[in-house]
Structure formats: structure tokens, C-alpha cells
Amino acid sequence: MSKAKGQKEQWDDEAYIQRLAQRIRSLRIEKGYTSHETFAYEHNIPRAQYGRYERGEDLRFSSLIKIVQAFDMTLEEFFSEGFE
């Protein structure tokens, strides 16, 4: 996201999606899960699908909500780091 003087902020979609993926991965590791498959299994999320989320692929908002809930967080808490 870059902002020229006097212009509205422009979103770089791909960079933002990669930030989401990195945040998801870092939270999983923070929770003590070394394997994305174990985390997905324990939270009833399809393992292959969860792996795509951590790679920044195929992430819908409804899926993001499910992941945030699995981390026992609010959306505000989820977006509080890494999205400055």
C-alpha cells in the first residue's frame, strides 16, 4: 500500500493477501503448532485447504472468519499486527 501526497491509499491485492497468509502462519506457530496439518485437523479445517491459506491461495472472507475463530481471536486482534 502506497500513498502519494493528496491521493487516496491504493491497495496492492497480492501483497495484502501474502500478509494475511503470513499472519495466519505466524499465529499457528505462536500457538505451538509446528505442522499446519495438525492445526487444521484439530480445528476441523480441511488440511489441504488450510495449507493453501498459509500460501495465500483461495482465501475467502468466510474462511478467514473460521481461521480467526480457531485462533480464539477477534478480527480486530487478528488485524492488529502486520497490516500497518
Structural features, described:
With 84 residues, this protein is mostly helical. The protein has one domain (13-78): 434 Repressor (Amino-terminal Domain). The protein has helices at residues 13-30, 36-42, 47-54, 61-70, 75-78. The radius of gyration is 14 Å and the shape is globular. The relative contact order is 0.14. The mean pLDDT is 87.
> How much of the residues is beta strand, in percent?
under 5%
Give the C-level CATH assignment.
Answer: Mainly Alpha
Profile the largest sheet: none
Q: Report the average pLDDT across residues.
A: 87
- Looking at the structure, the CATH topology is 434 Repressor (Amino-terminal Domain)
Note poorly predicted spans: none
In the CATH hierarchy, the architecture is Orthogonal Bundle
Amount of helix: 55-70%
Output the structural class. mainly alpha
What's the order of the H and E elements? HHHHH
Termini separation comes to 9 Å
Shape: globular
How many domains? The number is 1
Radius of gyration, in Å, reads 14 Å
Can you count the helices? 5
CATH homologous superfamily placement:
lambda repressor-like DNA-binding domains
